[in-house]
Specification:
Number of strands: 16
Helix content: 25-40%
Shape: rod-shaped
Structural class: alpha+beta
Largest sheet: 6 strands, antiparallel
Strand content: 25-35%
Low-confidence stretches: none
Distance between the termini: 114 Å
């Protein structure tokens, strides 16, 4: 074998390999002699035994799906007129019964008397079209999921607003200014069970409370509503905050299965400025006094729904004119990207700027100072500013 012959065989082998990789082949039809030549890959594309020989142009219609025959007819008519190269896509059904998507490019072979033949490149693009259909279906399902999530979020927001309407501006109680804020998670469609309550009691004191029910979505909102409304009713009994938490704990243990919750409940006497409070697994409130922020020492109390055997203790904090108390749920300080102590430090630093400001505006500024809403969890804030005695 000559060197030229060896090179020709190597080139042919590499060309055949390239055709297999691209799932494409070439064909040539001589319009004058009727001679037809197909490459090996064209036989593979059509699922045809090479022993049966290639197909004439006119016989291609026997393989093409009925809905695509018009595309084939236009392709063949155009190329046999010798006008220009043409291409089209159509589906064929092979002898085995499977359907394949083909892209066919045909080019007329010209001579002085007109076209003498047709040269074609045929590629099987079934895999590509299948991938496109899968991607299209995935995009459709994703769009439907986004629409459904948006609708569910709208329903949950509406329900939450009905259960826990956020007051506009600060709440005015004797000798105090109270501002509250519910902060929904920034990026998630799930709403949590965070809640707050600030209201004047018949005896002149103020009820101040925040809490967080475990979970997300409608179940958490439903449990939050039961817990908050139960607290409002129990408050009318006049019991101290630690006893109120004991009652709420019984409710969670016996009526809210597979649920836990945290809470801080307090009574503020605006005349004596005594803040009597208890907590159930929640972060202790922050006291800002004379420009310095510190966390109050929390009385003993585990989260609601954990056990019924551990009593809740009571704490008393005597406040002064100009003091500010900030209560919040853990969604304010917890982040996946930072330690909780770092979040607490940011909150305490930002809280020092609250006294002397409009509290409602101050809470907005505090959220900005700590990095904005939590991307993954809701939060509630309740700020109480002590004014001078009237």
């Amino acid at each position: 074998m000559s060197m030229l012959d060896g090179y020709s065989e190597l080139l042919a082998s590499r060309l055949a390999h390239a055709q297999r990789l691209g799932n494409m082949g070439w064909a040539e039809w001589n319009l004058r002699t009727g001679g037809i030549v197909w490459s090996e890959q064209v036989y593979a594309i059509f699922g045809r035994d090479p022993a049966e020989g290639p197909l004439p142009l006119a016989a291609l219609a026997g393989y093409v799906e009925p809905d695509d025959l018009a595309a084939l007819d236009e392709l063949l008519w155009t190329v046999t007129q010798g006008v220009e190269s043409v291409q089209a896509e159509f589906r064929i059904r092979r002898a085995a019964g499977d359907v394949r998507n083909l892209r066919v490019v045909l080019e007329p072979l010209m001579a002085p008397g007109g076209p003498t033949g047709v040269h074609g490149v045929i590629q099987d693009i079934t895999g590509r079209r299948r991938a496109e259909r899968i991607m299209s279906e995935s995009r459709r399902q994703l769009l439907e999921a986004r629409v459904q999530a948006a609708e569910e979020r709208h329903v949950m927001l509406a329900l939450r607003e009905a259960i826990l309407p956020e007051p506009a501006g600060c709440l005015d109680l004797p000798h105090t200014r109270i501002a509250v804020r519910y902060v929904p998670a920034e990026k998630t469609a799930s709403l949590g069970g965070d809640w707050f309550e600030a209201a004047a009691l018949p005896d002149g004191r103020a009820l101040l409370a925040i809490g967080d029910v475990s979970g997300h979505g409608l179940p958490a909102i439903a449990h939050m509503a039961q817990l908050r409304h139960a607290l409002i009713g129990l408050t009318m009994t006049g019991e101290p905050p630690n006893r109120l938490l004991s009652r709420l704990n019984d409710l969670v243990l016996h009526r809210l299965a597979d649920t836990t919750a945290t809470a801080v409940v307090g009574h503020l006497d605006a005349v004596t400025r005594v803040f009597t409070w208890a907590q159930a697994g929640n972060l202790a409130p922050v006291l800002v006094r004379d420009g310095v922020a510190s966390r109050l020492d929390p009385p003993r109390g585990i989260l609601l729904g954990a056990t019924g055997d551990v009593p809740y203790r009571l704490a008393e904090t005597r406040l002064r004119s100009g003091d500010l108390v900030l209560m919040f749920t853990d969604g304010l300080v917890e982040r996946r990207t930072r330690d909780i102590d770092e979040g607490l430090d940011l909150v305490m630093t930002a809280a020092c700027k609250l006294p002397g400001r409009d509290l409602d505006e101050g809470l907005d500024r505090l959220l900005e100072d700590i990095g904005g809403p939590n991307p993954e969890d809701d939060a509630c804030l309740l700020a109480v500013g002590i004014l001078g005695t009237c």
